[in-house]
Amino acid sequence: MGELVFVGLGLHDEKGLSVRGVEEAREADVVFAEFYTSLMPELSVEKLERLVAKRISVVSRQALEEQEGKLILQKAQQRKVVFLVPGDPLIATTHVDLRIRAEKQGIKTRVVHGPSIISAVIGLSGLQNYKYGRSVTVPFPEGKSIHETPYLTIVENRKRGLHTLCFLDIRVEEKRFMTIKEGLQLLSEMEKRKRLRAVTPESLVVGIAQAGSSNPTVKAGPAKKVLTYDFGGPPHSLIFPGKLHFMEAEALIALAGAPEDIRELVK
């Protein structure tokens, strides 16, 4: 009987792969990988292949989603297949779907976890993880249409005093990566329409770039100032803090360069 093992690659380059992940890949009969669900800025497939001592077949979005991962599942019917994915496996719903299909076909599945953008960004911010509400993705607009959901999610979380983690749209195959500036501009446009004072020039925000690298950028302050800050290359993420604990305020000042007057926001 075959086996399909989902292995997380981490966030930045091939060095994010765990020792267990390396061992699983080296023991596999076939190794697949996808790189479209997230951006790993410094990943080298050649270096990754040398690390795991295996040839890696890179699958496209079409092969995984439109063709329902049939190639991977066919190989896993009789052999051990390792599927390398950015970040932590099963964070992307497309990976959950593939695992369900495998189990329904009688293929044993396992997961080797890797660093996640969720834990990395939350940790870098210094904000307490149990105080986050629903997270949301800010998508690129379709034509002139701007999605309301990200803005309304910030509104709802703030009513409950909770922080909002905003993932910014990534389209790896198109080489389009939303920046913190673009994300804030889109949310500001929605503010003009809704006028619920969730994303104003004075709103406290935290911008984080290149989480998982050896030199991530973390900057907190009023939206109008964060909007002009140079965060460098992608991927970028945004956080809209809710009610602050005094330790969270101190963390934003010490770790993210927030102005000291944010202590006045502590409740």
Can you describe what's shown?
- It is a single chain.
- By secondary structure, the chain is of the alpha/beta class.
- The chain folds into 2 domains: 3-112, Cobalt-precorrin-4 Transmethylase, domain 1; 117-265, Methyltransferase, Cobalt-precorrin-4 Transmethylase, Domain 2.
- Helix content is 34%, strand content 20%.
- The chain has 10 helices and 12 strands.
- A 5-stranded parallel β-sheet has the order 3-2-4-1-5, sandwiched between helices. It has a 5-stranded mixed β-sheet with strand order 6-7-12-10-11.
- A hairpin with a 4-residue loop joins strand 8 (170-171) and strand 9.
- The longest helix has 15 residues, at 180-194.
- The N and C termini lie far apart (57 Å).
- Biggest sheet, spatial arrangement of strands: 3-2-4-1-5
What count of structural domains? 2
Class from secondary-structure proportions = alpha/beta
The amount of helix comes to 25-40%
Roughly what is the average pLDDT, rounded to an integer? 94
CATH fold call of the largest domain: Methyltransferase, Cobalt-precorrin-4 Transmethylase, Domain 2
Give the count of helical stretches: 10
By CATH reckoning, the class of the largest domain would read Alpha Beta
Residue windows where pLDDT falls under 50 for at least 5 positions? none
